[in-house]
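Task: sequence design from structure.
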């Protein structure tokens, strides 16, 4: 996946405010709120919600392994690593042999990380 075509280069996103930590292109507080909101509501299908929650936890550095690839990251992943995980989710979603439960989990990861990376305006 490539950067959004809005004329705003990814390397500039982190420069919005040196005092405000970013996860991808989102404020860390916004990602934390997204996780809190997700766990407080019950509208999303279970596996989808688990995938989104896993993505948010990993993106904020609360999980040691990426939810789709299992890649170990010691710190908060940068935009490049987050985007690679979105790409891995796309590959898995396009695989017709992916089981339904895993597909729902992966869709949750994809949609959450797409928002974190700025590829979508729809927060999960």
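Answer:
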């Amino acid at each position: 996946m490539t950067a959004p075509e809005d004329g705003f280069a990814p390397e500039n996103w982190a420069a919005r405010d040196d005092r405000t930590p970013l996860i991808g292109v989102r404020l860390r507080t916004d990602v934390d709120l997204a996780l809190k909101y997700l766990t407080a509501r019950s509208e999303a299908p279970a596996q989808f919600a688990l995938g989104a929650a896993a993505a948010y936890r990993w993106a904020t550095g609360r999980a040691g392994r990426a939810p789709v690839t299992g890649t170990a990251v010691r710190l908060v992943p940068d935009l490049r690593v987050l985007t690679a995980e979105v790409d891995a989710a796309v590959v898995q979603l396009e695989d017709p042999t992916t089981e339904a439960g895993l597909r729902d989990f992966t869709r949750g990861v994809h949609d959450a990380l797409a928002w974190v990376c700025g590829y979508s305006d729809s927060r999960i």
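Residues 24-117 form one domain.
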